[in-house]
Write a structure and sequence with these properties.
Blueprint (H helix, E strand, L loop, with lengths): L1 H22 L3 E2 L5 E2 L1 H10 L10 H6 L11 E6 L3 E2 L6 E3 L2 E9 L4 E9 L8 E9 L3 E11 L2 E5 L1 E5 L2 E7 L8 E8 L4 E7 L7 H4 L2 E8 L3 E3 L13 E4 L1
Antiparallel strand pairs: 1-2, 3-6, 4-5, 6-7, 7-13, 8-12, 8-14, 9-10, 9-13, 11-12, 14-17, 15-16
C-alpha cells in the first residue's frame, strides 16, 4: 500500500511539473509579449522563426480562441529557384520561398502567408501580397509586415474587393534577410489563394495598385491592368482549403 502511495505521489508530481513547464515563459519580445515554448513554436510554424519579435499583445490575444500549438498548423509551400529566361543569361526572378499556413478555431480560420527571400532583392520598389478568397469571407483586418536585418515596417496600402484583397509593400532600401508576411482570418468552406508579386523594375505606389482580384491572375490572385503585369515577376501562388 505504501509503495502504491509513493508511486502515486511521484506520478502526480510529474504531471504537476509538466503543467508548470508548459506555462513557463520561454521568450519575451520588445513589445513585452511573452510566449511559452509551445506558443513560440506555433508562430514559427505559422510564419517563420523570428516573427515572434513583431507580435503585439493585440495580435497575440487574437489567437486566444485556439491552443497555440505548432502541431495544429497546416502549411503549403512553393519554392522558386533562380529562373533564367530562354535566350537570356540574366536571372529574372531571385530565389524565394512562399508558404501559406492555417490553424482554426470553432469560428474562424487563421491564415499566415510568408515570402522569404533567399538572396537580397536587387530591385526594391513596391511589391504586392494578397489573396483571392473563393467561398470564404475575410474576418477583420489584414496585417502586412516586412522584416529585414536592421528592422521591420508595416503597410496599410490595401485594396479590398468582394473576392479578396491586395497590399502594396515598399521594400526597404537596404538590409538583407528580407521576409514579407501577412496575417488575416476568414470564414470556412472554401479555398484561399495567396500570391506574392515582386516588382522587377521601379514603379510608383499608384501603379502598384493597377489590379483587380481573380483566379486567372498572377499567382491566381492579381489581374493587372494598364500593362502593369510586365512589371512583376509572375511568381506562382499557393492555395489552401479551410
Amino acid at each position: 500500500m505504501r509503495k502504491i502511495l509513493k508511486l502515486l505521489i511521484v506520478f502526480i508530481s510529474f504531471i504537476a511539473v509538466q503543467v508548470y513547464a508548459k506555462e513557463v515563459t520561454y521568450y519575451t519580445n520588445d513589445n513585452n509579449v511573452s510566449f511559452t515554448k509551445e506558443q513560440y513554436e506555433f508562430f514559427s510554424s505559422m510564419f517563420y522563426e523570428g516573427y515572434q519579435d513583431l507580435v503585439t499583445q493585440q495580435e497575440f490575444d487574437s489567437y486566444s480562441e485556439i491552443e497555440m500549438n505548432p502541431n495544429i498548423v497546416n502549411t503549403k509551400y512553393f519554392i522558386t529557384q533562380p529562373l533564367i529566361q530562354p535566350f537570356s543569361t540574366s536571372i529574372s526572378t531571385t530565389a524565394k520561398t512562399l508558404k501559406i499556413s492555417t490553424s482554426s478555431s470553432s469560428t474562424r480560420a487563421y491564415v499566415g502567408v510568408t515570402a522569404t527571400w533567399k538572396n537580397d532583392p536587387n530591385v526594391r520598389s513596391y511589391d504586392l501580397m494578397g489573396a483571392y478568397l473563393s467561398g470564404v469571407n475575410l474576418i477583420g483586418s489584414v496585417t502586412t509586415r516586412v522584416s529585414y536585418s536592421s528592422g521591420s515596417t508595416g503597410s496599410n496600402e490595401i485594396k479590398n474587393f468582394d473576392n479578396g484583397f491586395g497590399v502594396s509593400i515598399k521594400l526597404p532600401s537596404s538590409g538583407s534577410n528580407v521576409v514579407v508576411s501577412q496575417s488575416f482570418s476568414t470564414t470556412f468552406g472554401g479555398t484561399i489563394y495567396a500570391s506574392y508579386q515582386h516588382a522587377t523594375s521601379y514603379i510608383s505606389l499608384a501603379n502598384s495598385k493597377c489590379y483587380t482580384i481573380g483566379k486567372n491572375g498572377y499567382g491566381n490572385v492579381f489581374v493587372f491592368n494598364n500593362g502593369m503585369g510586365s512589371k512583376f515577376d509572375a511568381m506562382t501562388g499557393v492555395n489552401i482549403s479551410v
